[in-house]
Design goal:
The protein is of the alpha/beta class and about 450 residues long. It is built from 15 helices and 18 strands. The protein has a seven-stranded mixed sheet with strand order 12-13-14-11-10-15-16, sandwiched between helices. Strands 7-6-5-8-9-17 form a six-stranded mixed sheet, sandwiched between helices. Strands 3-4-18 form a three-stranded antiparallel sheet, with no helix packed on it. Helix 5 links the parallel strand 5 and strand 6. Helix 2 runs antiparallel to helix 4, helix 2 packs across helix 6 and helix 9 crosses helix 10. It is globular.
């Protein structure tokens, strides 16, 4: 059984039956059987289906936002926009997939030579709990518009969200089994990856789990895309718009109660403005409301699971023990639910967990730097490489500095975010491959060279 627990109360919501290995195998086979007809539907036909799914998501927005609040604690005011973003992703690829996948004509010794981009078959997506709708559709939308069929193994913590996505496809009139929900326990994931009807794998989650997925997929000679953890630096220089930088750094850090791979986690602040900026972010963090995620005035909901909350508190406590100053929060609150307060740690150094580990919660770590050179060095002093931000009035120089940061994306004077129009992904232990944009849709294709004399 898959058990959904409400992190606001700590109580069990419901149990959902999980598939046996034999049932799982049949559902994967169903997705493979649906592939030829879906592949041959063509771009216009597939776009019609994806647009209909997007419309269904919007019809069900309030219900879907409530499910996310109940199953993983996302504030309701963030859940609605997440549904809208998922619908936008479906519409974006419905509109642009054919253009992104146009054949590339390449000159050679042939009379005509070109590369065609064709679907692979049935794909497996293994998804986390922290953005149940958005992370599903950034996998589903491009893969389906290519002409692949999709098997979705969602996180066991959000079974109702996964079921609701499947229901939206059915209500939209999507062909049966082009998107198969796979409610299985995590210990069956390896068998799913190895299933002969699975052509490739998309995984979003922790670096440790991603290493296991890559190992299994590699042993089967199956392509995979990994979007893993992050410990994103945010560099704030003395000439930056400090109010805008403080607003954005706090927003980036506390969205989804800080449970985001691309959140600003290590704030590297130029020494001359360090004290001033510290006061600014402390004032902003102190104003945030923590509480029931189903109330519209709640800024920060609970952490999704108790074990995650305990690990976060370990990271904070160990950092304080090693010399970090806790200016706000840092204590486990009494009462029910898996809450963790907005926490501000100052004077954080590279040997502290708040710096060298990924913190998945509303914990901001401030570090003073002498100049941009030290900032860049510390930005790269991590095993991760997902996103980064630079705040400065020197935009031309910032673009050069961005080239020196080992990450998959850099925002200059803005928030690091995912966008259907732009590729997203990481380097080092943040993974490989790209999702979204024109790059993401070409991950799960056969780039077939055709040579004509």
């Amino acid at each position: 059984m898959l058990t959904a627990n409400n992190p606001y109360t700590g109580e069990k919501i419901a149990e959902y039956p999980s598939l046996s290995e034999q049932e799982m195998s049949q559902r994967i086979a169903d997705a493979k059987a649906a592939f030829p007809a879906w592949r041959d539907t063509g771009f216009a036909g597939r776009a019609k289906v994806l647009n209909a799914v997007a419309a269904e998501l919007r019809k069900r927005k309030d219900h879907l936002a409530t499910l996310m609040a109940q199953e993983m604690g996302k504030p309701i005011k963030e859940g609605g926009p997440e549904v809208e973003k998922a619908a936008w992703c479906a519409e974006f690829y419905a509109q642009n997939a054919e253009r992104f996948l146009q054949s590339d004509v390449i000159e050679s010794d042939a009379s005509r030579s070109y590369v065609r981009y064709q679907p692979l078959g049935a794909l497996l997506g293994i998804l986390p709990w922290n953005a149940p709708l958005w992370l599903a559709f950034r996998y589903l939308a491009p893969a389906l518009m290519v002409g692949n069929t999709c098997v979705m193994k969602h996180d066991p913590n959000v079974p109702a969200c996964a079921q609701a996505i499947a229901e939206a496809f059915a209500a939209a009139g999507a062909p049966e089994n082009i998107m198969v929900n796979l409610p299985i326990a995590t210990d069956l994931a390896e068998a799913a990856i190895r299933h002969p009807d699975i052509s490739a794998v998309s995984f979003t989650g922790s670096a440790n789990a991603g290493a296991k997925v890559a190992s299994v997929a590699g042993s089967e000679i199956k392509h995979c895309v990994l979007e893993l953890g992050g410990s994103d630096p945010c560099i704030v220089l003395a000439d930056a718009d400090l109010a805008a930088a403080a607003d954005t750094a706090v927003l980036s850090r506390i969205i989804n109660a800080g449970q985001s791979c691309i959140a600003a986690k290590r704030i590297l602040v130029e020494k001359s403005i360090y004290s001033e900026f510290t006061v600014m972010v402390e004032e902003r963090l102190a104003k945030l409301t923590m509480g029931d995620p189903q109330l519209t005035d709640t800024d920060i909901g609970p952490i999704a699971r108790e074990d995650l909350r305990q690990n976060l508190h370990r990271q904070v406590s160990d950092s304080i023990a090693k010399g970090a100053s806790c200016l706000l929060g840092g204590e486990l609150p009494a009462g029910e639910g898996y809450f963790y307060p907005p926490t501000l740690l100052a004077d954080v150094h590279p040997e502290m967990p708040a710096f060298c580990e990924e913190t998945f919660g509303p914990v901001m770590a401030l570090t003073s730097v002498a100049d941009i050179d030290e900032a860049l060095a510390l930005a790269n002093q991590t095993e991760y490489g997902l996103g980064a931000a630079i705040w400065t009035a020197q935009v031309d120089k910032a673009e050069k500095w961005a080239e020196q940061i080992d990450t998959g994306q850099v925002a200059i004077n803005g928030i690091v975010k995912t966008d259907p129009r732009l590729p997203s992904g990481g380097v080092k232990r943040s993974g490989f491959g790209r999702e979204l944009g024109p790059h993401g849709i070409r991950e799960f294709v056969n780039a077939k060279q055709v040579w004509v004399k």
